[in-house]
Design a protein that fits this description.
160 residues; 0% helix; seven-stranded antiparallel beta sheet
């Protein structure tokens, strides 16, 4: 199944374990009024019950905007994640992005790429459409008009 054919996608059709899918969509991230990421070479991670997470190659993020943030976490599929603060002038968004410095073999293409939390920056878009953040404060999925739920992270979904 081609999950990037610009059709409507239901997150319950996504697989588990998750898969990595190259995307041709244009992804932008704006923080402090500045476009800090702009790419048509992203990867989407698709996992049952989650909206897609877009990973932007480091080369498509403005140099010097991301600074290593506090903490780390573990994903059973991708490995150890580190966090990045977005910094533009005097404005800082703590843990605005994350990435996997040494991802597991199935996700090796994510090396050097970062994903952004939509609620921690001014605006994220996919092909010009503003995204809504995945519910909850841990997951970083991007919801557009093409994505249908219900989504993990909403109240009552803790056991999914």
């Amino acid at each position: 199944m081609d999950f990037d054919d610009l059709g409507i996608e239901c997150v319950w059709d996504y697989p588990r374990p998750p898969v990595l899918v190259p995307s041709r969509s244009r992804v932008t991230v704006v923080f402090a009024g500045v476009v800090i990421a702009d790419s048509t070479r992203t990867f989407r991670v698709l996992e049952t019950s989650h909206p897609p997470v877009y990973y932007v190659p480091a080369a498509d993020v403005v140099a010097g905007v991301l600074h290593r943030g506090a903490g780390q976490s573990w994903c059973e599929w991708k490995g150890r994640a580190v966090y990045w603060d977005a910094v533009v002038a005097d404005l800082v968004s703590r843990r605005a992005a994350w990435g996997y410095p040494s991802p597991s073999p199935d996700f090796r293409a994510l090396t050097g790429a970062v994903a952004f939390y939509p609620e921690r920056v001014d605006r994220c878009t996919v092909d010009g459409e503003p995204v809504r953040p995945q519910p909850g404060d841990f997951y970083g999925g991007w919801i557009t008009s093409r994505i249908r739920g219900p989504f993990k992270g909403a109240p009552g979904s803790e056991g999914w």
